[in-house]
């Protein structure tokens, strides 16, 4: 059972660590950079429970032999999925299963028809991790990863052959707080609502997530959710308004001290995931003839920040 992780950012490294911690060395996953070269450099991992360097664990990952991979977990950003994954497909076995794990929605629609019969699963995670130390220098030198939060991880089947039961169990045993759900699209739409509210507002106003609990943000949050609900209904996704608002507000409170991923992206002058979050809603709104002024305003605001960077 060989697992590869495509994308050596914080989430990719965290999952690599979790899989490595729960298996024999021979079964450790491959960690692949976006150019699909195996990363052989060691990295340090600081678990959530400790801040001390003494307890840092070191892991070494194998060289890539892509034709031996049974499951490839794609942890690059939504806007990188196609460019990172499509060139690898000819090197993968015909029965290699693909699992996409990123914020936002959209890439699965482009990817699914190009998999030549391979199975596709989707997932979402609220686990938090931060790369510290030699940022981005994984290939040549050790880098450090610090887990910053626990949270729900959900996986589910999307198209083609299902993931084997043994690989499913391997994932669920390795990743704390993970579950396999029957209806992954509904779970991803719920997470989309969280990201569509929290990410652009915190990035635009450079505030911590907890600031969105104040009355000044409630009308925007309500409008973003109402637009999302109308579009989801057209897509055949049934969501409950009160439950969705409660979920968004719960995440705001639970992650009150966090800098959202989109705020971090704009503060570092990086491209954001806005296209796969509010941008996805704007595009679907156009397709269904539904106005999306609240999502469009946030989309435009983040695009303006990106353009000025
Ligand atoms: O993208 C993020 O930052 C996270 O998904 C979340 C849940 C909004 C918390 O910051």
Automatic annotation (TrEMBL):
Domain Ketopantoate reductase C-terminal: 183-306
Pfam families assigned to the protein according to its UniProt record, in alphabetical order: ApbA (PF02558), ApbA_C (PF08546)
Keyword terms, alphabetized: NADP, Oxidoreductase, Pantothenate biosynthesis
The EC number(s) this enzyme carries: 1.1.1.169
Class of enzymatic activity (EC top level): oxidoreductase
Catalytic reactions of this protein: (R)-pantoate + NADP(+) = 2-dehydropantoate + NADPH + H(+)
UniProt pathway annotation: Cofactor biosynthesis; (R)-pantothenate biosynthesis; (R)-pantoate from 3-methyl-2-oxobutanoate: step 2/2
Residue stretches making up the Ketopantoate reductase N-terminal domain: 3-159
Stated family: Belongs to the ketopantoate reductase family.
Reported function: Catalyzes the NADPH-dependent reduction of ketopantoate into pantoic acid.
NCBIfam families membership: apbA_panE
Name listed for the protein in its UniProt record: 2-dehydropantoate 2-reductase
Lineage: Bacteria, Pseudomonadati, Pseudomonadota, Gammaproteobacteria, Alteromonadales
């Amino acid at each position: 059972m060989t697992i590869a992780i495509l994308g050596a950012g914080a989430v990719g490294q965290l999952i690599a660590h979790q899989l490595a911690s729960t298996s024999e060395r021979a079964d450790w996953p491959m960690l692949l950079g976006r150019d699909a070269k195996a990363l052989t450099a060691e990295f340090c991992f600081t678990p959530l429970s400790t801040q001390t360097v003494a307890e840092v664990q070191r892991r070494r990952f194998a060289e890539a032999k892509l034709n031996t991979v049974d499951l490839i977990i794609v942890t690059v950003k939504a806007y990188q999925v196609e460019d990172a994954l499509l060139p690898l497909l000819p090197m993968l076995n015909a029965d290699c299963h693909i699992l996409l794990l990123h914020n936002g929605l959209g890439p699965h629609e482009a990817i699914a028809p190009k998999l030549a019969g391979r199975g596709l699963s989707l997932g979402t995670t609220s686990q938090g991790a931060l790369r510290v130390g030699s940022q981005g220098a994984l290939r040549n030198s050790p880098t450090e990863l610090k887990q910053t939060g626990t949270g729900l991880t959900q996986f589910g089947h999307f198209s083609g052959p299902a993931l084997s039961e043994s690989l499913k169990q391997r994932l669920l045993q390795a990743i704390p707080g993970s579950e396999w759900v029957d209806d992954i699209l509904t779970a991803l739409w719920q997470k989309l609502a969280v990201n569509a509210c929290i990410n652009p507002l915190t990035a635009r106003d450079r505030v911590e997530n907890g600031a969105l609990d104040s009355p000044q943000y409630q009308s925007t949050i309500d409008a973003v959710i109402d637009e999302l609900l109308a579009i989801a209904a057209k897509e055949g996704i049934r969501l409950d308004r009160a439950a969705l608002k409660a979920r968004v507000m719960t995440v705001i409170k639970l992650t009150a001290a966090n800098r959202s991923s989109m705020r971090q992206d704009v503060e570092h002058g990086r491209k954001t995931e806005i296209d796969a979050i509010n941008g996805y809603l704007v595009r679907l709104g156009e397709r269904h003839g539904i106005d999306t002024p609240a999502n469009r305003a946030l989309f435009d605001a983040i695009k303006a920040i990106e353009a000025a960077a």
